[in-house]
Amino acid sequence: MRFFSDNAAAAHPAVLDAIAASNRLDTAYDGDEWSAKLDAAFSDLFETQVRALWVTTGTAANCLALAALCPPHGGIVCHRDAHIENDEAGAPGFYTNGAKLILVDGPGAKVAPDAVTGAIDRIRKDVHQVQARALSITNATEYGLAYTAADVAALGETAKRHALRVHMDGARFANAIVATGASPADVTWRAGVDALSFGFVKNGGLNAEALILFDTGLADEVLVRRKRAGHLLSKGRMLAAQILALLEGDLWLANARAANAAARSLAKAAGDRLVYPVEANEVFLRVSADEAAALRAQGFDFYDWGVGEMRLVTSWDQDAEAVDKLAAAIASL
Amino acid sequence: MRFFSDNAAAAHPAVLDAIAASNRLDTAYDGDEWSAKLDAAFSDLFETQVRALWVTTGTAANCLALAALCPPHGGIVCHRDAHIENDEAGAPGFYTNGAKLILVDGPGAKVAPDAVTGAIDRIRKDVHQVQARALSITNATEYGLAYTAADVAALGETAKRHALRVHMDGARFANAIVATGASPADVTWRAGVDALSFGFVKNGGLNAEALILFDTGLADEVLVRRKRAGHLLSKGRMLAAQILALLEGDLWLANARAANAAARSLAKAAGDRLVYPVEANEVFLRVSADEAAALRAQGFDFYDWGVGEMRLVTSWDQDAEAVDKLAAAIASL
Amino acid sequence: MRFFSDNAAAAHPAVLDAIAASNRLDTAYDGDEWSAKLDAAFSDLFETQVRALWVTTGTAANCLALAALCPPHGGIVCHRDAHIENDEAGAPGFYTNGAKLILVDGPGAKVAPDAVTGAIDRIRKDVHQVQARALSITNATEYGLAYTAADVAALGETAKRHALRVHMDGARFANAIVATGASPADVTWRAGVDALSFGFVKNGGLNAEALILFDTGLADEVLVRRKRAGHLLSKGRMLAAQILALLEGDLWLANARAANAAARSLAKAAGDRLVYPVEANEVFLRVSADEAAALRAQGFDFYDWGVGEMRLVTSWDQDAEAVDKLAAAIASL
Amino acid sequence: MRFFSDNAAAAHPAVLDAIAASNRLDTAYDGDEWSAKLDAAFSDLFETQVRALWVTTGTAANCLALAALCPPHGGIVCHRDAHIENDEAGAPGFYTNGAKLILVDGPGAKVAPDAVTGAIDRIRKDVHQVQARALSITNATEYGLAYTAADVAALGETAKRHALRVHMDGARFANAIVATGASPADVTWRAGVDALSFGFVKNGGLNAEALILFDTGLADEVLVRRKRAGHLLSKGRMLAAQILALLEGDLWLANARAANAAARSLAKAAGDRLVYPVEANEVFLRVSADEAAALRAQGFDFYDWGVGEMRLVTSWDQDAEAVDKLAAAIASL
């Protein structure tokens, strides 16, 4: 019974069906009829004109966005625990040609306006120090916290004051939307977000993510950068088809709801073992080594998170019975 | 009746089946059981120990290889018509951090040893000029010519004499192997090739290519670079499964045989209109604008190739009836 | 008697005096009183408001300009024989983070508008090919030809039509100005030039070149890039002082006049051996190997230029007697 | 009476004399007789065969070394207060093509072996996290502390254990040598240092620094990188001559002794106001805003260092009378 990742879960059957349905000759790259529908589909969802590009990984989506928002000699403010800082092998440095990540702290990997202002204030305004040009936040955060529309709007204001462009890493955007009930528009462009990495792979997709550009003026450059990074697949229609299948009938929301609900069940059982409030689909628990071993002995698979903590991640297809069993096992620790 | 690309053809049904069969939770990235089989599968095929990595595009495979073979301040000798020079949006410059492509000429986009030596000889051996560090050839070439094992061995000798590492862009490697009957080993590492981009997408794959490292010492670095470029997909098992399905029972060879045969049929009909000998699955013809229009009027779709030429590309699933019709139409021009 | 370089000539005594005069504590970097005068001095010279920065090499000046004028994914049109292509060790690739040099031909390393248009027309306007974003010309060219104001204006028009920014490598700008009698303004910004590498080192300076930004909006970025490239010297006053000394009383023009005059003397003696018209301070001659050897035997030092040609470069301090001797020796070959 | 920088001090008269003496035509770049002497001069000083290159700034020396010691996808462990992290505008990111600085803490900007080990231990050994490949320390540190030979040897051991190459930023190497009495060899290559930025500009030079490669195998690559970065000056003899003049008769040590002595005088007067022990030529004092204002009112010029601290830097030519006056003024605060 595996609780270690939404990343490696199966793709939703509707996604495989969509791939099969698009498996016939069409124009290569993104010249096909499926890819052509993405802008409209996401413009509907976000209630404004956007440009939407498929890519195959969150790292590619994040770094293409950052490269468009920050020059090589600029800095990107982000949380010390952000995926772009810790888990992308320095990809931001590669894509931006050497921009600097300027790290801030905050509980649950959440960035607060004061933290941004503090970071900016510590930079001397001369050519010897790297000046911040962008802000990147993760929603839901690496610890499963979701930003409300008001949270993001406050950051957007701060960013504007310091002339920072804003990127949102939405690897778990669906889970965040379900958690807060915010409208996709309110938590992004209306709050000052310029570009969003909209994750589908952790939420039922096979290998398609979407990069949403609210600043549509960035699109021409990003399209070139995508090709230049080797991310323009020749049969792109089968990526677009995945995304359209997940948007269809709000399947993306249904999937995220299932994952979040499973996490909530586990959280309820965990009580005051919780390290962070459980808002999306991640559960961090305080456990002793013996307790962790006891859970593993019962067939549960998960990551240790440093000393004395464990991480559970639920996915769209989390087996309900397994969740119940784990909840019971946690409760009886 | 479309003859403009193998790139945008459908994926083979066995490939979709393999994706479906691997669509269950396993370890993320390349920690799964399918990915784990690639090294062995390709080591068998190449009769030596290799390291094999999946990526999603030929551009990524090419440029990851080039970045491992050439430092930022080095040069890569390649043909003026090479894909890396003309059709990858400068991706080699991005991946290598600014290495220089040193262009040579040669009929049919084929590189000859003398051309390489000539290019090297023109470079002053000082710090003011970029020194060549690698050679990249395309097999089959952009104009559908295949290198024999002897061709490559002669280049390998030349490369060795000038201390150049050797990369082969094998976007149509299958077609080349079928064309020459060379063993995969003879035309690559036995002839001095260090790294091969082994294409599957043009030959029945959906979105999986293989990067084969004959110099296995490069693997650790390339694995990091792949992640850093955003090309480490979380559900990599569904890429590995595609490749394994195409290797299974030599399906890759069967697919290439079908494409090459279709091209040969067209070539036979074309007679002395042929611009280049037809060895793989591309056919370049001399046609007037009126002739091209006439073919289009009969429902045939293809690319013009500059003034007075047209390009036909056949694929693994080329409709036999359409091939016959086009052959007849060409013959009766 | 050395005729192989203006690059390695001595610095003018006035330059050493200026260094000595500025050798006292002042604000570091470019915060000193000498550096502060550069903008005004060059704005006077160019009859418009410019920003002027000292750097220590022409390569740095060229590449800082190119990086500001062309994005990493863009292309820079230049002559096949341009210094940035042949003699800067790939520095443009480093500074621009991988932009592509798009090479054109033309006699005497001079770029003509048609050549630019031809190069642009050969580029497919899609994301697969690198799109040109800048034009770089060298004045005087690598073969000693000078652009007239009309020449540059025609190129500027062409550049504008194709949305190319324009850079002029003026390593021998002084010699070009003397050759054509053009006003510095007419041959640069009035003709569409955005940035000029204004060379002093080949013309009596020790180690100071000026980068002139006619598009003053580029200055903030270029100032940061200069620091980031390690080109912000702490005692910058001693670079600014060199430049001011050479501008003072038009010493830069006097120096260039002397060098050009020496070249003209040699050209007169050379008659129809001349490969190119001699406009600035370089003289290319057709000579046999025996003739070259005979000149060397008489104590003249110069570069062979491929087979059957030699290159003479004169400098501001060229010994008049040596020039006469060489002229006589050439005439009597 | 200025105490804010050694960076902007005058050059030593012997340095200007050396420039004047080398001001005659010789081979360009580093082909001249002065440049040719550097390897031998530094090999003598360091009691082993080294390669020594002139550059014009410490940033260039540091970053050329780092680029040779760390691949683009690697990390460089350094102190949070290191110059490469704080005061080089992201130049390490530019030169290394995006390597990551991995920051550690330690009093007085000094790096301890445990801090290095701690940083390495926090990195997961997988492709998702940037792996450390180099260590960079500053001697004397940004707060004026000097590493003993034993300090460096302990770090060298630690670095070796983790396969890190070692760079020393010796912008104030002379002051450190004088402070500890260590032999240049003991505190560098014998302790495991691979490359040293040997500063001269803060110690009487005009615009020449030396990059010392103890791993002489790096030289060929660094020579190319220097050119590629625009740091190969055409009249390099006038940089080499500066360095030789400062090495001559141990002028570099005499200069550093003078600066350190001035700092010691100030330190003595400062008593328990000192923030760090004064070992080299920097003095950090705790002062109230009123006290700082009082000193300024008496004509002393210096930097505030955050709130409640001030920084004094002494130079080789510090006026003795001014030092006495400032010492008295501090004592009587």
Task: Write structural notes for this entry.
The structure is a homotetramer of 333-residue chains. The first copy, chain A, is of the alpha/beta class. Helices cover 39% and strands 15% of the residues of chain A. The first copy, chain A, has 13 helices and 10 strands. Chain A has helices at residues 13-21, 38-46, 58-69, 83-86, 91-95, 113-121, 149-161, 173-180, 219-228, 237-247, 251-270, 289-297, 320-331; strands spanning 51-55, 74-79, 100-104, 131-138, 165-170, 195-198, 209-213, 282-286, 303-304, 309-313. In chain A, the strands form 2 sheets. Chain A has a 7-stranded mixed beta sheet, sandwiched between helices. In chain A, helix 7 links the parallel strand 4 and strand 5 (165-170). In chain A, helix 8 (173-180) packs across helix 11 and helix 11 packs parallel to helix 13. Chain A is globular and about 55 Å long. The mean pLDDT of chain A is 97. Chains in contact: A-B, A-C, A-D, B-C, B-D, C-D. The A-D interface holds A 72-73, 75, 86-90, 93-94, 96-100, 127-130 and D 72-73, 75, 86-90, 93-94, 96-100, 127-130.
